[in-house]
Structures are given as structure tokens and as C-alpha cells.
Specification:
- The protein is built from 19 helices and no strands.
- By secondary structure, the protein is mainly α.
- Helix 3 packs across helix 12, helix 5 packs across helix 8 and helix 10 packs across helix 13.
- The longest helix is centred in the C-terminal third of the chain and has 35 residues.
- The protein binds phenylalanine (PHE).
Length: 452
């Protein structure tokens, strides 16, 4: 039986839900260390320029495709051109790969929040706390299952009653907490030095790699090239302005990424006496360095708890978008009921996520090029599949359905599309060239041929 498609009740609901998807672990943990590593202010500037050109074009295309067809990725591409069904399938594979391991990390965040709330601030700051925790068997799986259950409940409640309502509560709280923590961090002794380091351009760290790193981050951060924005676009009403929605999502996503840097870099500087090496510790930054920073601060227990609540909200709203995208694909394809589809997807993701979780403990002997199971999933989805999907999406829009098809959809509300020229040039020429460069460099570096 064909079910009636749900929708977000208004533009605000859509923008907050899509921003909820975009603002995630990538903004809070990955953006700050990339900025610190690749030239501070210069990275910020490059990122911003890419966001309003490249990010704008791709996000507009995806949302418009979703809204025009009223379908999730697989059906959407196919209904526009039969030969491009494969593109939908590729796009759909990305959330199926990401959702399980993203939820494993969501489980870690939940565990840290529980530790800070229950006053185990010093324990969490101990050197081996993190490795012992993720190296366990049942405990990390338990937190992963809990995180997955919370995500599933929201998706089960549906687009308007679940996703929209939760986003309307969590996203404003997230903004307030971020501003509060960043403000507090800046008052610490020695923080100003970190602040200056963060926003001042340091040209010696800038190279072609900076642009590639910024591009890769942009994709992931804006939840592009994985069918999410197509799915959310399919729930957007025709009388909501598409172009201004995209602008607002971009501002939200970039604003939170910038604030996350303000929250983390000055505090780490204050803690380490200006030692930048602590910033480049990758995943360890959030789970090893920051707990130490919190433990050393006055009111560190409260600040740490506030921090992990905001990270949890960011991770949850992103996980929700991943799960909804998968659910929507199955429902469009098989016309299943929402409830059964949710149970099926949650069960599947739980099974698929367990190896990623165990990959740091009992299954740590499984590795490829030095990567753990979780990192392999991350590499496959982010460095291989996503650039491919994005590249084909650009070529599809640029040369098959033509940019004017997207422009028509954007113009439905009031006949205007002020970024149309920019959109056309980006999607046809500039974005594909950059994407090919990203794809080549990320695959080569992933395989160990070059070092990025
Ligand atoms: N955009 C999210 C972030 O910045 C990441 C994400 C990836 C969300 C995949 C959903 C799906 O963390």
C-alpha cells in the first residue's frame, strides 16, 4: 500500500532538522583540529568560501531533487533518469555504512556524559580510561545499544512528531551550551593565546592540502553525498523557500563549527601552556585530552557535563538523520510500515555496528593498513563513496537533468533563485574538478601512497 509522505510542518522545522543532521561530531571534534592543523584563520576563510559556493551548490541540488521527486535517494535519481538508479543505490550505501559506527561513537559520548554527571571527573581524565573502555567487550556495546535505542525511538515517532520536535528542542539548547562553554573557556589563563592562534592566518601551514582538507570536511559536515538531504528535501513543503533554507543551514553548521573551535582550542592552550601537539591527537582529542582539560578547571565537572550533553545532542540529531534516510529508503522501496521498518533497521545496524565496537578490543587483530574496523568503515564511506556520489551528482545535475531543472524547483516559492549563475558554474565545472582531486588524493593517502 502506498503511504502518504510525511512532511516537516514549516520552514523552521525543516531548517532545524537539516541543521541537526549537519551539526554533528564532525563540527565539534574534527573541525577544530583541522583548523588548528591547517593554518588557523586561513583555513577558516577557505572553509567559509567553499561553504557558500561548493556546499551551497551541492546542498541546493540534493534538497531540490528530494523535494521535486518526493522520494528518497534510490527512487529519486531513478525517477529523474532511469539510467541513474545506480547513483541512488551508491548514495544509499553511505548511511548504511556510517550509521552503525557513528552510533558506536555516540555510545562513547553517552558513556562520558554519564561519567561526568555521576562525578567521575578525575577517573575520566586518567590516561588509560578511554583505551580500557573501548577495549572492553560488553560495556561499549551496551552504550552503543542505548544510543541506538534513543535514536530509534525518535525515528519511530515520525518526521513531524519525532524528528522535528526533537530538533526544535535540542538544537537551541546546543547553541546556548556551545556559547556558554566557549565563553567560559576564553576566561581561562592563557586562553587568549589559543584564541589568537585559532583565528590568525598562519600561512606556512597552508598548501593545496588545506583546500582538500577543507573540502573533505565540508562534505561530511553538511551531510552531503549520502542521500540525507535528498530525503529531508522530500519532506519539505513546496511553499517553504529552498534557497534561504540552504543559506540558514550553512550558517548554522559553519557557526557551530567555528564556535566549537573557540570552545576547544583556547581551553587546550590554557591547559597545555600553548603546546599545540595536543590539538592534533585526532579522536583522542575529545575523549582523552578534553577530559583532562575539564578535570583541571574550576567547575570542570559542570563544564564537562555541559560539553558532553551538547555533543550528545549533536550526535543524536545526526544519527537520527542517518537512520531516517535508511528507513525512508526501505519504505519507499517495499512500502513497509514505519514501525516495522524502524525495528528492522535498528536490528540490522546493531549487528553491523558490533564488529566496529569490538574492533578496539577482542577483534583488534583485524586491521587493514593500520586501520581498525571502525576506521575502515569511515575511510570507505568518507574517502571513497562520498566523493564518488558527489561527483556523479554534479555530472547528473550539470549534464543530464540540467541545472535548470533544479532552478525551477528552487523558484517554485517566489520565482527567484539569486544564486542561479553561481550554482550552474559550480555544479557543472568547478565542483567536479575539485571532487576528482579529492577522490584521487584521499584514496592515495588512504592506501599509504602519499601523506596528507
Ligand atoms: N554532518 C555530521 C557531522 O558533522 C556527520 C554526519 C555524517 C551526519 C553522516 C550524518 C551522516 O558530524
Amino acid at each position: 500500500m502506498q503511504h502518504k509522505r510525511s512532511s516537516f510542518s514549516n520552514k523552521l522545522g525543516f531548517v532545524l532538522a537539516a541543521s541537526g543532521s549537519a551539526v554533528g561530531l564532525g563540527n565539534i571534534w574534527r573541525f577544530p583540529y583541522l583548523a588548528a592543523q591547517y593554518g588557523g584563520g586561513t583555513f577558516l576563510l577557505i572553509y567559509l568560501i567553499l561553504a557558500v559556493t561548493f556546499g551551497f551548490a551541492l546542498m541546493t541540488a540534493e534538497i531540490a531533487i528530494g523535494r521535486k521527486t518526493g522520494l528518497s535517494a534510490i527512487g529519486a535519481f531513478k525517477s529523474l533518469d532511469k539510467r541513474f538508479g545506480f547513483l541512488g543505490v551508491l548514495a544509499a550505501a553511505v548511511p548504511i555504512i556510517i550509521f552503525p559506527y557513528y552510533s558506536v561513537i555516540g555510545g562513547w559520548v553517552t558513556k562520558y556524559l554519564a561519567a561526568f554527571i555521576s562525578g567521575q571527573v578525575q577517573d575520566a581524565a586518567a590516561d588509560t580510561y578511554f583505551s580500557e573502555f573501548i577495549g572492553g567487550t560488553f560495556e561499549p556495546i551496551g552504550w552503543f545499544a542505548l544510543f541506538m535505542a534513543a535514536t530509534s525511538i525518535v525515528v519511530l515517532l515520525g518526521v513531524e512528531e519525532g524528528i522535528e520536535k526533537v530538533s526544535k528542542v535540542m538544537m537551541p539548547i546546543l547553541v546556548v551550551l556551545t556559547i556558554f562553554i566557549a565563553g567560559y573557556g576564553l576566561t581561562l589563563d592563557g586562553a587568549m593565546e589559543g584564541f589568537i592562534y585559532y583565528i590568525k592566518p598562519h600561512m606556512s601551514d597552508v598548501s593545496a592540502k588545506t583546500i582538500l582538507a577543507a573540502m573533505g570536511q565540508l562534505f561530511y559536515s553538511m551531510s552531503l553525498a549520502m542521500g540525507i538531504m535528498v530525503t529531508y528535501g522530500s519532506y519539505m513543503k513546496k511553499d517553504n523557500h529552498l534557497e534561504s533554507s540552504v543559506r540558514q543551514i550553512e550558517i548554522f553548521d559553519t557557526g557551530i563549527a567555528f564556535l566549537a573551535g573557540l570552545m576547544i582550542i583556547p581551553a587546550v592552550f590554557a591547559f597545555s601552556g600553548g603546546d599545540r601537539s595536543m590539538l592534533s591527537s585526532g579522536p583522542g582529542l575529545m575523549f582523552m585530552t578534553l577530559p583532562k582539560v575539564f578535570a583541571s578547571m574550576k567547575f570542570g565537572g559542570i563544564i564537562g557535563a555541559a560539553f558532553f550533553i551538547m555533543v550528545l545532542f549533536a550526535a543524536l540529531t545526526s544519527a537520527i538523520s542517518l537512520m531516517e534516510t535508511i528507513v525512508s529508503i526501505f519504505r519507499d522501496k517495499f512500502h513497509w510500515e514505519r514501525r516495522n521498518t524502524c525495528l528492522f533497521v535498528a536490528g540490522l545496524a546493531l549487528l553491523l555496528g558490533i564488529p566496529s565496537s569490538l574492533g578496539f578490543g577482542p577483534l583488534s587483530f583485524i586491521s587493514w593498513m593500520g586501520l581498525s574496523i571502525l576506521d575502515i568503515m569511515d575511510f570507505l564511506s568518507n574517502s571513497v563513496l562520498m566523493p564518488i556520489v558527489a561527483l556523479f551528482t554534479c555530472l547528473f545535475v550539470g549534464f543530464v537533468i540540467k541545472p535548470s531543472t533544479i532552478a525551477e524547483e528552487v523558484k517554485i516559492t517566489d520565482g527567484k533563485f539569486s544564486g542561479e549563475k553561481l550554482f550552474t558554474v559550480m555544479i557543472k565545472w568547478i565542483a567536479p574538478i575539485f571532487l576528482i582531486a579529492i577522490l584521487i588524493s584521499s584514496v592515495l593517502s588512504g592506501l599509504g601512497f602519499i601523506k596528507i
